[in-house]
Amino acid sequence: MSLVNVLNVIVKQAKTPFMAPISFDIYFESVKALKHSLTWRIVYIGQAGDDQLDQILEEAEMDCDVAGRMTFTLEGNFPDVSKLPPNEIVGVTAILLTCSYNTNQEFFRVGYYVNNAYSEEFPDLIENPPMQPDIQ
Length: 136
What we know:
Layout: E1 4-11, E2 22-30, E3 38-44, E4 55-62, E5 68-76, E6 91-101, E7 105-116, H1 123-127
Antiparallel strand pairs: 1-2, 2-5, 3-4, 3-6, 6-7
């Protein structure tokens, strides 16, 4: 039996500009008070197959001193574009939401596909994307 059960995760805004924060409402329960803290992370996958390019957008540690249901909002910044290969900025990637017990015992991971694309407001960029992505 698990001591922590994630009940629901809601992406606050499913469609945002690249440079906007990403937020999750997280609902979970702790069956009993925990001896160690929980560490929640939002991770941006920089390139499939190379986890060295992954970026932690937010990390929050919380104690669960009492049993019961809890909810909170975890908000992360956008990825640092200078750390991403230019050919990996536009296109499909993923964001992971993870939770670990005692810093390193990951017990929860959910992934969300992300499609970084130029806005329909800029049809020229969609039809003829620049070699170096234009992010503003």
